[in-house]
Amino acid sequence: MHLSPDNIIFWQYGFVKINATIVFTWGLMLVLGLCSKLVTRGLSKDLTRSRWQNLLEIIVTGITQQIREVGLVQPRKYLGFIGTLFLFVATANLFTIFPGYEPPTGSLSTTTALAICVFVAVPLFGISDCGLKKYLREYLKPTFIMLPFNVVSELSRTLALAARLFGNMMSGSMILAILLTITPYLFPIVLSALGLLTGMVQAYIFSILAAVYIAAATQPSNAVNNSEPNENLKVSKE
């Protein structure tokens, strides 16, 4: 039983190691890249569409709707980042049905990297939507005394994202490994199915939290965008 795919070493030369986390992460990215290339190479605008295109549109529409419900008024702008997070985490856990596969999300290094991506993306989107001065001014609200607390909040929620995803994925793998040694038939199968469900839930939670953080960072811009239709309507009535 391995606590983390980091402990599975495929190749080592001195301090340089290639472990299961690296292999399965790059393999997963390759699979996702090839699948996206194959699915999108023959897109049609007609009424007759392939099943893959229908599946793709269902996934894209569903993610876009969830992003909009979080409060982001331009979901297409954030679809690439948030959608990629969801698909990566979901697929990483979906592949656990294959023997010998170790989900890279069971490694703290992978979940930390995903959390850092969110940590970097939040201010980038916030500055892009609100401008640098307006974004930085949010750290001083309601008073400048809150500046250190707001900075600590940014760091702590990044740590919480990484620890939450790592803890849930690692605990599921450990429980499954323990049950395999005790009851190698029925219970591991049931738990594997439950693990797939848990993985999808964790992918959803992770991506939604990323969307919530981005929505909070772009809140002034969203407030302006939401008020524009009302102002236009008032002008038209006059």
Extract low-pLDDT stretches.
226-238
Tally of individual domains? 1
Q: Beta fraction of the residues?
A: under 5%
End-to-end Cα distance: 72 Å
* Total helical segments: 8
Strand arrangement within the widest β-sheet reads 1-2
Share of helical residues: over 70%
- Kindly state the mean pLDDT as a whole number? 79
Decide which structural class fits the backbone: mainly alpha
Characterize the largest beta sheet: strand count, sense, and whether it forms a barrel: 2 strands, antiparallel
- Radius of gyration (Å): 21 Å
Total beta-strand segments: 2
Shape: globular
Strand and helix order: EEHHHHHHHH
Q: What would you note in describing this structure?
A:
- Helix 1 crosses helix 3 (75-94).
- Helices cover 74% and strands 4% of the residues.
- The protein has a two-stranded antiparallel ribbon.
- It has 238 residues and is mainly alpha-helical.
- It has one domain (5-40, 48-237).
- The chain has helices at residues 20-40, 51-70, 75-94, 108-130, 132-137, 147-182, 186-217, 219-237; strands at 9-13, 16-19.
Give a brief description:
The protein has 238 residues and is mostly helical.
Question: Features of this protein?
Answer:
mainly alpha, two-stranded antiparallel ribbon, 8 helices, 2 strands, globular, disordered C terminus
